Amino acid sequence: MGRYTGPKHKLARREGVNILDKQSGSLQRRLNIPPGGIQGRKRKKRLSEYGIQLREKQKAKTIYGLLEKQFGNLVKTVEKKKGETGEMLVSLLETRLDNLVYRLGFAKTRAMARQIVSHGHITVNGKKVNIPSYQVKVNNIISLLPSIQKNPQVLQALEETHTLPFIKKEGIFGKLIRMPKREDVQLPFDLQLIIEYYSR
After folding, report:
1. What is the rounded distance in angstroms from the CA atom of residue 115 to the CA atom of residue 130?
2. Which CATH topology does 95-180 take?
3. Cystine design at 130: which of 31, 99, 120, 145 (Cβ 3.0–4.6 Å)?
4. CATH class held by domain 8-91+188-198
5. Whole-angstrom Cα distance, residue 11 to residue 1?
6. CA–CA distance, 182 with 31 (Å, rounded to integer)
7. What would the DSSP string read from start to end of 95-164?
């Protein structure tokens, strides 16, 4: 199953979460009403346990812009390791290069961050990396190449302040100072339900 390419407002309402990376008053008021009005609400009530798990997984996939296979592989990776599965999944999702470009404020949305990375405008430790799913390691330095620094959207994004405890930003440079933890970010989905979905 590929990425959803239809109207994002409709998708946000279907998932019940703002996946647009921006605030919208009218959208926020409608998030609790799935597409289809009353019929949509009735369908929501009839969701099975499997359906609820599936919905949470879809939310996470949509927010981080992952394909089904990519997301499934991440979950399989953390399930093989020792430690708290949900915590490790957050770390892998948050240390994707495209996500960190967004978190550092080099891009206004994750979609824009993916585009910047895939078009070759980002370096990690001085080397160009054009793979959005690239896993950044602690103490890696992420920077914007001159080719994108004067882009109006990037300049606008750089003006906004982004403060998260696991990253440090200085101008066009950013650094992952430690692995992200679950409490570092507000996640509008239930990690445990996602793990249960893949554990069936």
Report:
1. 9
2. 3.10.290
3. 120
4. mainly alpha
5. 15
6. 24
7. TBHHHHHHHTTSSSSHHHHHHHHHTT-EEETTEE---TT-BPPTT-EEEE-HHHHT-HHHHHHHHS----
Q: What is residue 81's DSSP assignment?
A: S
- Report yes or no: 176 and 95 within 8 Å, Cβ to Cβ: yes
At 169 the three-state DSSP class reads strand
- Domain map (residue ranges) of the chain: 8-91+188-198, 95-180
pLDDT in tens, the chain (200 residues): 555 555 655 666 565 565 556 555 556 566 666 666 555 555 555 568 899 999 999 999 999 999 999 999 999 899 888 889 999 999 999 999 999 999 999 999 999 999 999 999 999 999 999 999 999 999 999 999 999 999 999 999 998 877 799 999 999 999 999 999 999 998 989 999 999 898 87
